Amino acid sequence: MPESLQANLEAVREAIRASTERASRDANAVALVAVTKTVPVERIREAIRLGLHTFGENRVQEAMPKMDEIGPAGVDWHLIGHLQTNKVKFVEGRFQMVQSVDSAALAEALDRRFQSALEVLVEVNVAEEPQKTGALPADLPAIAAVVASAGHLRLRGLMTIAPMVTDPERVRPIFRRLRALRDETSQQLGMPLPVLSMGMTDDYPVAVEEGATMLRLGRALFGPR
Predict the structure, then answer these.
(1) At 126, phi and psi to the nearest 5?
(2) pLDDT per position as a tens digit, 141-154
(3) Among residues 76, 13, 73, 66, which one has the least CA distance to residue 43?
(4) pTM
(5) CA neighbor of 175 nearest in space, from 141, 138, 214, 146
(6) What pLDDT does 75 receive?
(7) Domain boundaries in the chain?
(8) How far is CA 60 from the centre of its chain?
(9) Fold type of domain 5-222
(10) Could you say which residues of the chain have pLDDT below 50?
């Protein structure tokens, strides 16, 4: 029996409310991206009925059949997993945001392919974990400059995936660093970068306290895979 999505959603919203209260923030300033990797279409439809309208997928080719089955339905799809340049052709017309731009080459490939505007985030490997994708902090200024100057890309902010830890307090410095990098990048480019996509099921209350404006939640909503 699948977990109650409605109960999970209410628990998540309460946790967000408590975190924003501790940080003197507005809970309405935190957007939810429901991560639907391996989640069947019926559960996604249930999420839409409950008012969720932004969904995150890790792989383009796993997402495409779901998108086709669900149809437009007033929802936005975000690509949150690593995107290879040879898969860029599948993104156009399907995803409203790519959260995982991590190189100038990928940004240039997206810009060449797209005829209309695409919102993007630069993914930063803040902890510099060798096994993970994402731009190194030292490379961020150059990549952000390429995105900002691209004709079809709209740089909206930064994204990170924090290290997996048992105590979320251990990754608080990661979220704090991403926020500082966002502020520095915004200043360097002379443009607002309102989106900080950080925080997942195991650490999102801490991410909210550190300024997250977008959370990517899978298990917290849909239960264990």
Answers:
(1) -60, -40
(2) 999 999 999 999 99
(3) 66
(4) 0.96
(5) 214
(6) 96
(7) 5-222
(8) 15
(9) TIM Barrel (3.20.20)
(10) 1
